[in-house]
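Inverse folding, one chain.
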């Protein structure tokens, strides 16, 4: 066995763990007309918030909260389903590459 290759793999794995740790604290915000959506590194929506009433001027506080929750849940449901569809379509390709045992976890957020 080539120990230099094993050492390189170990160093790469350690570096990947460092990057993952940094990404766990990374959140991206996108804002349009007072609607702010915060996404984490796994492409999961963390927060939806209407900071202004520009989009829907007559929105009550309870309607605002309900709409924010609905948007968050709907988008996260869509993301999860799209990842499942992609994983299913990639099964054959992965098996042909000898990586059939990787499972669904190869996509972020799965």
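Residues assigned per position:
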């Amino acid at each position: 066995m080539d120990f230099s290759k094993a050492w390189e793999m170990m160093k790469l794995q350690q570096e990947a763990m460092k990057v993952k740790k940094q990404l766990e604290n990374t959140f991206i915000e996108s804002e349009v007309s007072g609607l702010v959506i915060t996404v984490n590194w796994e492409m999961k929506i963390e927060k939806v918030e209407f900071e202004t009433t520009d989009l829907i001027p007559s929105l009550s506080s309870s309607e605002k909260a309900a709409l924010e929750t609905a948007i968050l849940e709907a988008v996260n449901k869509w993301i999860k389903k799209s990842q499942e569809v992609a994983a299913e379509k990639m099964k054959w390709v992965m098996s042909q590459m000898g990586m059939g045992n990787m499972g669904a976890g190869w996509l972020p957020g799965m």
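Residues 26 and 79 are 18 Å apart (CA to CA). Strands lie at 27-32, 35-40, 45-50.
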